[in-house]
Design a protein that fits this description.
With about 130 residues, this protein is mainly α. It contains five helices and two strands; from the N terminus they run E-E-H-H-H-H-H. The chain has helices spanning about 20-25, 35-45, 60-75, 85-95, 105-120; strands at about 5, 10-15. Strands 1-2 form a two-stranded antiparallel sheet. Helix 3 (about 60-75) crosses helix 4, helix 3 crosses helix 5 and helix 4 packs across helix 5. Residues about 1-30 have low confidence and may be disordered.
Length: about 130
């Protein structure tokens, strides 16, 4: 667990492994700017803790799936779009950008979904109406 400090009338929790505060790791700011590199940092650190993670794959295998999830979610921020409704677009985006990843879409889909929902959790309320 990170340390908490008050900064500009808000509590900030600093991740001890990265030294980055939780607001920076969200990948968005109050004005809804979207920062993909912050999401990449988060998933690089987090991917081995995910329930779908398999030891025979590296972060480089998972990275295109995460990128597909967070970039597509970022493109639709605040529009109430759901992952399941856009799965064919997500699948196409993944196949187009997966590079040398060894993950087939069926294996990559849960990583993309996790990245999508992480972006959604940053927004107040239930942005896509799926109860998460």
């Amino acid at each position: 667990m990170g340390t908490t400090q008050r900064t500009h009338d808000r509590s900030v929790t600093r991740d001890p492994s990265t030294g980055v505060d939780d607001a920076d790791l969200s990948g968005t700011t109050a004005d809804r700017d979207f920062n993909p590199s912050v999401h990449d940092i988060y998933w690089r650190e987090q991917h081995t803790r995910e329930p779908y993670y398999r030891k025979d794959f590296t972060y480089d295998d998972y990275a295109p799936a995460y990128r597909t999830g967070y970039e597509t979610a970022g493109r639709y921020l605040g529009q109430g779009r759901r992952f399941d409704d856009l799965e064919s677009e997500l699948h196409s985006n993944y196949e187009r950008t997966k590079g040398k990843s060894r993950l087939a879409w069926q294996d990559a889909k849960e990583a993309a979904r996790a990245a999508w929902h992480r972006v959604e959790r940053i927004l107040p309320g239930d942005a896509d109406g799926d109860g998460r």
